[in-house]
Specification:
alpha/beta; Rossmann fold; seven-stranded mixed sheet; globular
Length: 218
């Protein structure tokens, strides 16, 4: 039976920019992947983003669901409704891994989805072995030095063999890419992965906060 990864993000493209290499790696190792996006993106970009999602799902052979929450205003929606979506998706998909936005993020949409995911993925969910929060360029690194949830990576995914393919995935969302030296430029995405890699003795990595790992009794 295939293992499964369920991704909750505020916006389409969040997960590809943050952990596209890891998703490619998981898929290649046999994981089934489902993405749940709470917004379809800014109205002016939605057609282009939809094309990117279709292409992404073909590359990853993954499923995706897009909800119609408004960009920048997800926090204004009833939290119970957001948690309900997350709980329903977990119950339906029965993931082994859950990946979501980082709680230490300047973007309020990202923080809202992180907090709802922590409630929806609480330890009463027996199937989930890992809950990871990913770092998104122009979100996590722009946050002021206010430590809400412990803003330090403690889990690294080696994407040395997937970095070029990750950048190809990022290019599927041209409305979100920028020219160097912006953090969402190709040069910055490549450089950030390689810089983090030097911190753990690898060529290129994606860093996460490991929020929870399945307890093992010994």
């Amino acid at each position: 039976m295939a293992r499964k990864a369920l991704v909750f993000t505020a916006h389409p493209y969040d997960d590809i920019l943050a952990c596209g290499g890891t998703l490619l790696k998981l898929r290649e190792s046999g994981f089934e992947i489902r993405h749940v996006y709470f917004s379809a993106g800014p109205a002016k970009d939605r057609q282009e983003i939809a094309k990117g999602l279709d292409a992404m799902s073909q590359v990853l052979t993954s499923q995706f669901r897009v909800l119609d929450y408004e960009v920048g205003r997800i926090s204004e929606e009833p939290k119970r409704d957001i948690i309900g979506v997350i709980e329903s998706e977990i119950a339906d998909f029965q993931p082994d891994w859950i990946l979501t936005n980082n709680g230490n993020d300047v973007n309020i949409d990202h923080r809202t989805i992180f907090e709802a995911s922590m409630i929806g993925a609480r330890p009463s969910q027996p199937s989930c072995e890992k809950v990871l929060a990913f770092n998104l360029y122009t979100g996590s690194e722009w946050t002021p030095p206010i430590d809400r949830y412990g803003n330090r990576n403690n889990f690294y995914s080696d994407i040395s063999g997937f970095l070029d393919r990750k950048i190809e995935l990022c290019r599927l969302f041209p409305t979100e890419m920028r020219e160097s030296p912006h953090p969402r430029s190709v040069e910055a995405i490549r450089g950030s992965a390689m810089l983090e890699g030097t911190q753990v003795g690898l060529h290129a990595v994606e860093g996460f906060q490991l929020i929870r790992e399945e307890a093992v009794l010994i």
